[in-house]
Amino acid sequence: MAWKLTKCELDNPNLLLDESILSLGNGYLGVRGNFEEGYPESFSSIRGTYINAFHDEVEIVYGEKLYGYPVMQQKILNVIDAQSVQIYLDDELFSMFEGEIIHFERSLHMEAGFVERIIHWKSPKGKEVKIHFRRLTSFITRELFAIAINIEPIDGIRQVKIISAVEGDVSNFVDLRDPRVASGHAKRLYVMEARKEEDYSIVKDLTYVTQLEVACVTATDICAEKYSYESQAAESRVEEIYLCEGNRPIEFTKFNVYTDTLRHGIEVVEEARKIQERLEETSFEDLLMEQREYLDRFWLHSDVEIDGDAALQEGIRFNLYHLLQSVGKDPHSNISAKGLSGEGYEGHYFWDTEIFMFPVFLMTNPEIAKNLLLYRYSILDSARARATVLGHKKGALFPWRTINGPESSAFFPAGTAQYHISADIAYSYIQYYLVTKDEAFLKDVGAEVLFETARLWVDTGHMDNGQFKIDCVTGPDEYTCIVNNNYYTNVMAKHNLLWAARVYQQIKENDEMHFDRLTEHLKLTDEEVTEWREAGEKMFLPYNEAYKINAQDDSFLQKARWNLDEIPPYKFPMLLNYHPLALYRYQVCKQADTVLAHFLLEDEQSFETIKNSYDYYEQITTHDSSLSYCIFSIMASKLGYREKAYQYFQETARLDLDNSHGNTKDGLHMANMGGSWLTIVYGFAGLRIKEDGLHLAPALPDEWNSFAFHFQFHGRLIYMRIDKESVSYQLIEGGKVILFHHEEPIELSSEKKVEIRQYEKWH
């Protein structure tokens, strides 16, 4: 049953979790897994509907504000609520929290793309009914959120009343106790209109500052033996009321179409009406068929099969499904830290995209990966402007937290100072090129990003005794801030600089006309590119002879070590229990930093150095970030630490399903979900993308009988399976291709499957 996730809880804490776990999305529209009829007033709920990148701005208030601090913060908005459907059996309101629940379950169907809720209920007065709710957000018509309800009266019911509502007066969730969740500015939408017009309920809202409009145009339909109908509109709300006579089955559907000014222009209502008109002859069953066809294609390219642990199989499919639901599929959007499942981190896009989620789509659905790169390209001018504010004469500094381009992080030591995001983005462009060999995209889009990020590093760093050094930055470890020569930052900048120089030369030699246009546009010269190359070649990479490791930065190893075993469990995560300065004074890491650099650019150091670094930093890493476990698992696989690799993977695969970080209610951990896939494909299968091709070094965990997955490379679709006896590679689509298996080249063709027996299990 790994394709179906079933939940039966009715207590408030678990219902809050299930709102995230059973959320639906399609990359444009996301709806949390709320009950249509709502909860009792005593229950807390985060009732939410979100449109990717649809946001407002709020002023950032500082007690002490210095030059260059961001002044406005973007915030994803909870938009018009079209979930609401109330059902009355005679005079009794259906509620899961009154009467008797004879049977209840609700399930997320990951292979079919919908959520259902099945209830057999007896009211306090003894009236019995079966109700079947189904809902989906369409992967084909991205604006559509649809609900279907089948009501089967069983005993003692003379009349069923259905009240369907669309509510424009909505607010965002706030939590004053948690900095990872918004702490204010809950109300950010005006209701512009709420009316019933012909066959549609129409509600339109306007954001306070950004002046973006969102509309919801709803069409309802009913199949009942005998019914009456009326509607009513108030200032912010439209209701449709169906009164069904008799003790007969009822089928009710509700098609909600959302449009916004980012994608649909200023006529949001008219555009939504057009979509509704196209859907007039479409049934809910038709939508289910479309969902299934779309997901069949998705799973063909993306599924990971695990034989040996049903819980982990469920976990990895759950993670992949939610990544698909949350990833933006248009130039306006990306994939936020919580996707479209909740409001944690206010809908902001981080470096999480490039390092933890982008690789999933790169290797399974390159077109989605390409769109993520196009989004970053669309905010390149904002990155240039941000670099200027921070005193740089040239270059692009991408924002640490953003929705539409400007920096939205008010805490610069662990935000703006993380300059490495510009190298992370450059790294993803390079990875895309190596996997797809898309020369046109590299010339038209990628080159400009590589060049502008390379400019940033030359302007940020300086030569010192023949070495290029970068001062006053923060690496991925947010418990160590504003340091000189963070290893991760420096090695990623080196990669960025050398590739920028290489791409410059490549375009110069192969496309003179494009080269002239590009260099004229950027005012770029050979002399400047020589600076990039020199800075990259002379980049200082901290190394400690005593420990034979790469030091995290110039001063890290001079600090006292914090004995993590002495910290009581309730003091984690440390960022919620210790002042930042207390953390900065110790050798304590929130997450993988130098270890992450060794994963991304393993050829920069010897195996011995990588092993020593792993052993050292593992002892002082808290894993307070959900981004950490997967990297330690991947590198444990590389180093042959079999038990550790598997233990860390177990932490990633079901992090949200088991709520192991305690905040899944605020939204799912998207980067960790990507990381769980990385742990299998880059960890257990040992995949690495290198200039000479694709390298794999597979090894099967002892706990499994086999695992298998598909991946794409150079336009080919390849199926790989690892069991206790052998590794097999099968070319599914495309022409011949050469891969490297434990450094030995193998040729794949459509004629035969390559099977390798007695493979080396672990390094």
From TrEMBL:
It comes from Planococcus shenhongbingii. InterPro entries: 6-hairpin_glycosidase_sf (IPR008928), 6hp_glycosidase-like_sf (IPR012341), Gal_mutarotase_sf_dom (IPR011013), GH65_N (IPR037018), Glyco_hydro_65_C (IPR005194), Glyco_hydro_65_M (IPR005195), Glyco_hydro_65_N (IPR005196), Malt_Pase/Glycosyl_Hdrlase (IPR017045). SUPFAM superfamilies: Galactose mutarotase-like (SSF74650), Six-hairpin glycosidases (SSF48208). Pfam families: Glyco_hydro_65C (PF03633), Glyco_hydro_65m (PF03632), Glyco_hydro_65N (PF03636). The keyword Transmembrane helix does not apply. Residues 687-748 form the Glycoside hydrolase family 65 C-terminal domain. The keyword Glycoprotein does not apply. Residues 9-258 form the Glycoside hydrolase family 65 N-terminal domain. This is Glycosyl hydrolase family 65 protein. GO terms for molecular function: hydrolase activity. Residues 317-677 form the Glycoside hydrolase family 65 central catalytic domain. Belongs to the glycosyl hydrolase 65 family. Keywords: Glycosyltransferase, Hydrolase, Transferase.
